[in-house]
Amino acid sequence: MASLESTRSTSLNESFLEQFDNLEINNNTYERTLAIIIKNQEEILSELKVIKDKVRRIKNRLNDLEQKIDNSFDITNDKAFKEDMIKGAAKALIKKVIYPKNSQIKSKAEKYV
After folding, report:
1. Residues 8-54 pLDDT 10s
2. 21 half-sphere exposure, CB direction, 13 A CA radius
3. Which residue among 14, 31, 55, 82 is buried most deeply as judged by most CB within 10 Å?
4. Are the C-beta atoms of residues 9 and 41 closer than 8 Å to each other?
5. Rounded (to 5) percent helix, strand, coil in the chain
6. Which UniProt keywords apply (predicted)?
7. Domain coordinates of the chain in residue numbers?
8. For residues 104 and 8, what is the distance between their CA atoms, to the nearest angstrom?
């Protein structure tokens, strides 16, 4: 279970803790609730890091494509380009089929709350 002190790092957390203290909830419930909140925040931050990394990679690929186009390079005959595009399209299709839609995620989150 996360310690109470580890939650006091930001003013937002402090504001939340002040409001939470005013509820006069017993200490055990308080600790469990904070532990759940902290765990959820850690999961969200972890997922955000993954998303940021994916966005960075997409930006890099777009920059590479722009450079090829700017250099008047005929990318349609480039074997590596074709392979990358086919692999990218296949990955995108697989992800679209496997991963949940935003509306599904939202409904699950609303059910959790």
Report:
1. 455 666 666 666 666 655 667 878 888 899 999 999 999 999 999 99
2. 8
3. 31
4. no
5. 80, 0, 20
6. Coiled coil
7. 1-73, 74-113
8. 33
Q: How far apart are CA 34 and CA 19, in angstroms?
A: 13
| 69 CB-near residues (< 8 Å, 6+ apart) | 75
Q: What is the average pLDDT score of the chain?
A: 75
- Quote the CA–CA distance of 75 and 35 in Å, as a whole number: 52
Distance from C-alpha of 37 to C-alpha of 89, rounded to nearest angstrom: 37
CA angle, 16 as apex, 10 and 17 as ends, to 5°? 90
What pTM was estimated for this model as a whole? 0.39
Sign of CA dihedral 51, 53, 55, 57: negative
CA distance 4 to 31: 7
Residue showing tokens 């972890």:
46
